[in-house]
Amino acid sequence: MSTANDTGFTPTGTIATTKDRRRVVFATVVGTTVEWYDFFIYALAAGLVFGQLFFAPAGEEFAQILSFLTVGISFLFRPLGAFLAGHLGDRYGRRLVLMITLILMGAATTLVGLLPTYAAIGIAAPILLILLRILQGISAGGEWGGAVLMAVEHAPSKRRGVFGASPQIGVPLGLLLASGVMALMAVIAPGDAFLEWGWRVPFLLSFVLILIGYYIRRRVDESPVFVELAERKEQTKMPIVQLFRKHALLVLIAAFVFAGNNAVGYMTTGGFIQRYATDPAGPVGLATADVLWAVTLSAVSWLVFTALGGWLADKIGRRTTYIIGWILLLVGVFALFPLVNTRSIAMLTLGLIILTVGLGLTYGPQAALYTELFPASIRFSGVSISYAIGAILGGAFAPTIAQALVQNTGGTAAVTWYLAGMVVLGLIATLLLRDRSGIPLGPDHEAEQAQSPIYGLSKA
Question: Which residues pair with 454 in a beta bridge?
Fold first, then answer.
């Protein structure tokens, strides 16, 4: 029978007490919820007000494309955040990185809420807006990997899917909170008031949420895998160099797994559906508050199916859960716009909920899948960089691409085929990977972890 070490964890990485388990899960969920609330608030505002407030001189249609481009620009800086966080996380620990990313994201978000518009300070306004979005991108690039490893490396081997779903749940919770707060402000400050000041309140609220998240994260111990690496002085000096020298192809395949999910998810988290469905000159023309409430409801559904995806990943394996999820996501993609284009808020809500079934099943298992792909000494770098590259290939410019396709074709059919293509790429990438559910995660098993999980390759 294994005994707990002086950190309170067993050498196999299981948590010594139920209280510790709950603390890790709670801190992971709260921290990632706050982080993604900040990230999504920007995307929602980009779809609803930033085109008018910061890019109006470009003309109505091009201003909206520029607004969505600022959402995508942040993704280009996610790899920088992933590189920095990967190096720090593999050298100095997961917990330190999570504290830094939380503060950086909160500061950038709060400052957006205080930013003067183009009418007040001219070209400096969009420049400052883009710089703050870049800071959000750097933070997001480092946040996810740390949250995932804190959750999964603390978990019992047979429950990694469930534990790994906790940072994943933070994403729909962040969307739920962001959409809910924005919808509330659309009711409290409708019309011109929303443009003048109502949109700023959700950004300023970030300051309070960051304080809460920081307090909770401080109370969580370091990952037991990193503690063991540190005690043995086995941290890799240049983890990123080792990652790309030995695992470059694996990073790319893992990135495409996420890209398929992320491109579809950013139809709502990137603000495209909100803009498309509320545009008074467009084919749908629904009320802003109604659409935001529909997105909020779909976030609840996304949360449920994300949790279910993590649970299923422990029962039937990561790979099988993903395959089922990709098939259901393809169904959701083809159902989405026919339902949205009925101009019925009930049908729009139904379309978004159907979409979340596949989104959840291809997102819930991701934390466990990614963690089990990479060796312990370079795991933070592998997980973070794969995620960041996947975000660029998937969601970075998905709203911009969708907006351009609608404006150039006059309909949404091209958007559907674009999203379907991304889903198929995600499915192919998943089929290329072996399921490594339950593989030991500690430094004693680096040789086993370094064996390539890609079909047809026996060594990393």
Answer: 433
Three-class SS state of 108: helix
Domain locations in the chain? 18-450
Per-residue pLDDT tens digits for 379-421: 888 998 898 899 889 988 898 899 899 999 999 999 999 999 9
Q: Give the mean pLDDT of the chain.
A: 86
DSSP for 318-350 reads: HHHHHHHHHHHHHHHHHHHHHHHTT--HHHHHH
Q: Is the pLDDT of residue 266 over 90?
A: no
Outline where 219-287 has alpha helix (H): 224-232, 239-265, 272-278
Backbone phi, then psi, for 15, in 5-degree steps?
-85, 140
CATH topology of domain 18-450: Growth Hormone; Chain: A; (1.20.1250)
Rounded CA gap, 106 and 118, in Å?
23
Quote the pTM value.
Answer: 0.81
Q: Say which residues have a Cβ less than 8 Å from residue 144's Cβ, sequence separation at least 6.
A: 32, 167, 383, 384, 387
- Give whole-number Cα distances, 92 to 118, 146, 200, in Å: 42, 12, 36
What pLDDT, in 10s, does the model give residues 90-123? 777 777 788 888 889 889 999 999 999 999 999 9
Burial class from Cβ neighbours inside 10 Å (0-12, 13-18, 19+) for residue 123 reads: exposed
